[in-house]
Specification:
The chain is an alpha+beta fold and 574 residues long. It is built from 17 helices and 18 strands.
């Protein structure tokens, strides 16, 4: 049974009227303004799927050339169905999932040098496969679960984006394979990134927010060359290359692996996928400084941090490396890199070059034209990534977060609101630090020695996690409530957050104080010799009030009776 992504349903959707459906590539783009969300198998599937949709829209509509053309498309409220359908009809053969010669994002006829295949679970990171057996998993390679063609297509994109690194099975025809294997394989094309994508109220809004102006195609470029998606290039072969990305469309559909899905009858007239072949694929070149620069300029969905270490190694100025998400940290705590707007300077201005560059897709939304179009629209930021372990050969943790973000925070003309939010984040971090050190001081008061750093670090970290958890939902509500284009005033909203955060953190401190043993109120000697000090719960509370007051005082609009100049005058928490 043939299965073509352009015609056959493979993308589950939630419609704006609340209904659900499964649509083909053609249908999901033509009806993008009717689609509220893509409820895919995992949050990490969303970026690679959206990037494929973006590549189709860019090529079908041939643009946008600039923000002026983008605004014309925006005012229409839907994609040009005739041009989308014409393009997909033109490329229809390359979207066939099980084509013998050029299957979609696969290598036709791919065979492993050892002649073996792997179960389809190899494409699904949370399912047991080979030596990767999650705790209490009931699945085994001897009886692999089947993937429907739709599921297989979605996990195929996921594998190209996030697959683990290290050794891969050698492929017949791969001249670079040694002893039946290829070594030093990097992770998938998105694995090095902290992926960030703006999300709107419908799929159409989401895709429009991610559409960036592309340079005009080079008329002298050979067929299949230039910045094109993989389906406009020659069919993939087992021979992979390490190369410099030609541009965003090339990266959006980067064939990071050579894969073949092996269909078999399901007994009901259809097909399923139980076995696959996965081998090494194309690698993004990082060998030279200009290669890294090109990667940064071509990749719009990640923030970048300057690396002086790479500058020395590559002997090239202004080298940047992707900023990855930290799985233990909520997205709002890392807003600084996402809101950075600094532009890349010339080598002459190397000393003044920005330490961080924000994601190009968010920077573009701050332009005057786009900000005017998005005025009043609820915008969210989707973040996704993985934390790899053991030389990136396994996945330790998955990261996914969605954060409301007013468009005005991205403004290229006015940094007031961006600075307002970053001040609130910094003050919150300092306030949480006060809670963490209260936990440490209470542990010392209860008998823990200062030299027992491991125990003290555990007390600090546990208190820090609980404090951030308490602040998380309130901060998101506060962020979503900001109305820079309306009546909101930066000083007033900062004062509002400072008072709410103070109440939350004092509640956490009260919980810590109420849980200490009686010995903590008698205190213990802390320090040595002349620096010796008796630490007890009362003194720990005084230190906490002082630190919290220092953390939040700059945010408060005016001094009031409930914030005394001497924080020790506050009522005891316990």
């Amino acid at each position: 049974m043939p299965f073509n992504l352009a015609d056959d349903p493979w993308l589950p959707v939630i419609l704006t009227d609340g209904g659900t459906a499964e649509l083909s590539l053609r249908e999901v783009l033509v009806r993008a303004h009717e689609v509220r969300a893509l409820p895919l198998d995992a949050p990490s599937q969303v970026p690679p799927v959206l990037r494929v949709l973006l590549a189709v829209v860019h090529r079908a509509l041939r643009g946008p050339a600039d923000d002026g053309q983008w605004r014309v498309w925006w005012d229409r409220g839907a994609f040009d169905a005739q041009r989308v359908e014409a393009y997909l009809e033109e490329q229809r053969g390359r979207f066939a999932l099980f084509d013998a010669r050029a299957p979609f994002l696969q290598c036709g006829g791919l065979q492993a040098l050892n002649g073996k295949t792997k179960t389809a679970a190899l494409l699904v990171p949370h399912v047991a496969s080979g030596h990767n057996v999650p705790l209490f998993s009931a699945q085994r390679d001897a009886v692999p679960d089947a993937l429907s063609p739709a599921q297989a297509a979605r996990w195929l994109l996921h594998a190209h984006a996030w697959d683990t690194a290290a050794i891969k099975t050698g492929a017949v025809g791969d001249e670079q394979a040694k002893l039946g294997k290829t070594l030093v394989n990097p992770v998938g094309s998105l694995g090095q990134l902290g992926v960030v994508m703006p999300v709107g109220p419908t799929l159409w809004h989401t895709l429009m927010c991610n559409l960036l102006p592309l340079p005009p195609a080079d008329p002298e470029a050979a067929e299949g060359e230039g910045d094109r998606p993989v389906w406009e290039r020659p069919p993939l072969t087992p021979q992979w290359r390490e190369r410099v990305p030609a541009g965003p469309l090339d990266l959006f559909t980067w064939p990071a692996r050579r894969i073949r899905l092996i269909p078999e009858p399901d007994g009901a007239g259809g097909v399923v996928v139980r076995q696959v072949v996965v081998c090494a694929g194309d690698r993004i070149s990082w060998a030279q400084g200009p290669d890294l620069r090109n990667w940064m300029l071509s990749e719009p969905h990640s923030a970048w941090k300057r690396s002086t270490n790479l500058e020395r190694k590559r002997k090239y100025p202004l080298v940047y490396w992707p900023v990855r998400h930290r799985v233990e940290r909520q997205l709002w705590r890392g807003l600084g890199p996402l809101l950075a707007r600094a532009e890349l300077t010339t080598a002459a201005g190397e000393k003044d070059a920005p330490a961080v560059r924000g994601p190009a897709v968010l920077v573009r939304l701050g332009s005057r034209e786009r900000r005017a179009a998005l005025r009043g629209m609820p915008l969210r930021i989707l973040a996704a990534g993985f934390e790899y372990g053991n030389q990136s050969a396994v996945i330790d943790e998955a990261y996914a977060d969605v954060l409301p973000l007013p468009v005005a925070l991205l403004s290229a003309q006015d940094a007031v609101w961006r600075d307002t939010v970053l001040e609130a984040v910094e003050a919150s971090e300092n306030g949480v630090r006060a809670v963490a050190y209260l936990a440490e001081n209470l542990a010392v008061a209860a008998g823990c020695r200062r030299s027992e750093e491991g125990l003290l670090a555990g007390h600090r970290e546990r208190a820090r996690e609980e404090a951030y958890a308490a602040l998380d939902a309130p901060f998101r509500r506060w962020l979503a409530s900001l109305d820079p284009d309306g009546a909101s005033d930066p000083e007033e909203v900062l004062d509002q957050w400072a008072r709410e955060a103070r109440g939350i953190l004092r509640t956490r401190a009260g919980a810590l104080l109420s849980s200490v043993p009686p010995a903590a109120f008698h205190g213990q000697e802390a320090g040595e010799d002349e620096e010796s000090q008796t630490m007890d719960a009362a003194l720990a509370e005084i230190f906490f009030h002082r630190a919290l007051h220092k953390a939040l005082r700059e945010l408060l609009a005016t001094a009031t009776d409930d914030v005394p100049d001497d924080p020790t005058e506050l009522e005891p928490l316990a």
